[in-house]
TrEMBL record:
Belongs to the UbiK family. Keywords: Cytoplasm, Ubiquinone biosynthesis. It comes from Plasticicumulans acidivorans. The keyword Signal does not apply. One of its GO terms (biological process) is ubiquinone biosynthetic process. Its main location: cytoplasm. It is found in: Cytoplasm. This is Ubiquinone biosynthesis accessory factor UbiK.
Amino acid sequence: MIDPKALDDLARKVAEAVPPGLRVLQQDLEKNFRAAMQGAFARMELVTREEFDVQAQVLARTRSRLEALEARVAELESRVLGAAPAAQSDTPTQPD
């Protein structure tokens, strides 16, 4: 969710932009605008910067582990494929 302080600042700026004749309504406008923005942001399912950074770290660790596993699989495949031709030549053939 968005930072409540930033939301308050935005609501205050919008309320301050109200014409002088409507300043009496400023506090009410500020409260209603803040509630409307919170509802809109909640429906958008936004994430905080902290949540984003945590997920970016998880992704980086996962990518690193994937690369290590890919290298390990490639090494094991090369061992198996390298040993397979030698094993095939050692097996006796059936006479026809």
